[in-house]
Each structure stands twice: as structure tokens, then as C-alpha cells.
Amino acid sequence: MASPIPPRPTPPTLTVSDERWPIAGSFVISRGAKTEAHVIVARITQTLADGRTVTGQGEAVPYARYGETVAESLTALQAMAPLVAEGLTPRGLLSAMPPGAARNALDCALIDLEAKRSGLPAWTALGLAEPGPVVTAETISLGPPGEMEAKARALADRPLLKIKVGGDDPIARVAAVRRGAPTSKLIVDANEGWAAEGLPALLSAMAGLSVDLIEQPLPADADEALEGINSPVPLCADESVHTAEDLPRLARRYGLVNIKLDKTGGLTTALTLAEAAEAQGMGIMVGCMLATSLAMAPALLLADRAAFVDLDGPVLLARDRSPGLRFAKGVVSPPSPDLWG
Predict the structure, then answer these.
(1) How far apart are CA 313 and CA 326, in angstroms?
(2) Catalytic residue at 260?
(3) Which domain CATH number covers 56?
(4) What's the pLDDT tens digit per position in 261-307?
């Protein structure tokens, strides 16, 4: 009697969707305000030879600053379904899609799918250190100085705060936060909102307020003015950096780079960017867009090599997905496998 033919895995099936997650109040930066996080989610489902059905998932945020829309990102992802069914890998994805939010969602879903199939954590498959709890910044959005000071007092027990400022009297706003949180480390994020004129004096004032890091003080298309400036506070590129190809130019202007998976196009290329930055002698910050814990979880695999971690997106939402990451007074713990990885 012939032996039964073992079942074969089904082809992976890609589904994509968009979700809206309300923000607690509003979130204001130099470019404007938001009241919700509008995210895209890629999910890849497969039934394995052992009968298990597993799903890998990834979340990303299309960002208008980089010419992205939710609708276009969803269309780009849907077009990848045939390649996913054929067994697309994260490495193969690099030549199939350009960097950006859509590729990030799919890259993270592919990595999560492999973790679910193998039963091994994603960090093991990627040859990374096991993630542990890390200090993350908590963000105070742009507002009147008195309001920002009150928020800082409420967060004064957090070890690291991030302050959103613009070109309108940033010194008063940072001073207000410093009064409210006298012992916290401070990141000041200008989101391209400052001008080259008067910048040395502004940097000096930030140093006087014991600021630990300044993100993207000048517009990305004008940051050549940073060359030759001896800043008393370390400067970090954000909008100016997307992939490793940007680093030779930026190494003359910044001491650190803010790695966000939505900019690099996924964890796979984020790791490449991190290695290239370290080779250039640049420090690393791991950042995020406004999104749920699903978007933060893959970025936590970079946290152990980062000088600064800013993965507080879920803290700013009115609610997070479940299961989500656990945040406790400025410390975030690694995800459970039910969430990602």
C-alpha cells in the first residue's frame, strides 16, 4: 500500500488594509497638527505542511512629507501579491519595491511570517541580540510654553523627553520644558523648522538648557549650512536621511542619524543603514512615525545599538492594538510573538 502523500504548504496570501487610530488630543509639530494615525497593514497568511496556519504582519505610515499617500501605498502593496505567492523574500523585496512605507509594511510582514513558520524569534534569524527593555523618549508636542511646561511636569519622572519645536521662540518652549522636567534628558526636534541665520546662537542656547540632542534643525534641502558648524549639542539627521546612500554627504553635517523603518523601507535595509552609519563613525537614533505597537515592534531590534530610542508612538494614541507593547514610565519592553516576531 502506497504511503499517503504529505500535504504541501499553500502559497502565501497577501492582504492589505488601512486603519485609523485616534490620537489622544492632537499631535503638533512645525508642519502642522494630526488627530489620528492613518496606517497601512500588510498581512501574509499561509497554511503549512503540518496543518498550522500562520500570519505575518507589518504596519507602516505613508508620509506626505515624502510624497506618499495611503491610497498609492495600498495599490503598490496589492501589486506585490503575485510575488508573495511565489515565495518573495525580504532580500528579493529590495529590488521589487522602492524604499518607503509600503515596502516597510511588507518587509516586516515577511520577517514575521518566517518567524511564525520556523518558531524562531526574528532576532535569532537575523543574527541580532535578544531585545530587552529600553528607555524610550516620550514626546511633548508643540504648543504654548505654559502648556508644554505642564506636560513636562506630568512626565518629569521619564528619563528621556522629546520636545517638538518650530521657528517661533523655541528657546522659551525648551526652557519651559526644562523647568517642568529638570532632571530628564532632552531631545529637541525642530522638524526642519529653523533657519541657518542665527543658528549658532540658537545651538548655544540649547546647550545652556542642557539639551542632549537636536534633530533636523534645518530643512533637508538646506542642511549644507551645517558643514563647518561646531555645535555644542550633537545634531541628528532625520528628514535628511533615508538609506545608506545618504551617509557620505551627511557625515559632514551630523553626528547621528535617525533610523525609521518607514524611511528605509523596512527592517532589512534599516539594519544596513545602521551598519553603514557605525562604519562612518556616526551614532544611531531609532525613531518612529505615529502608529501602533505593531509598527514599533520591529524597530526594537535596533534599539540595543542606539544612543537614543524614540518609539513612543502608541503612548500618544487614545488606544493601541492588543496585544501591544508594554510601556512603563519611559521604558518599553520587547513584543510578545503574538504581536510580531
Answers:
(1) 12
(2) yes
(3) 3.30.390.10
(4) 999 999 999 999 999 999 999 999 999 999 999 999 999 999 999 99
Determine the structural domain holding residue 36 and report its residue range. Answer: 13-120
CATH code, domain carrying 200: 3.20.20.120
Catalytic residue among 151, 164, 185, 329: 164
Can you tell me which residue has the cell 534645518? 218
Q: Do 160 and 232 belong together in one domain? A: yes
Q: Considering 116, 151, 162, 260, which one is annotated as catalytic? A: 260
Reported as a single tens digit per residue, the pLDDT across 63-91 is 999 999 999 999 999 999 999 999 999 99
Verify that 143 and 102 share a domain, yes or no.
Answer: no
Whether 3 is covered by a domain: the verdict is: no
Cβ atoms of 243 and 261 within 8 Å: the answer is no
Same domain, 192 and 77: no
Active site residue 151: no
Point out the domain boundary residue: 71, 95, 120: 120
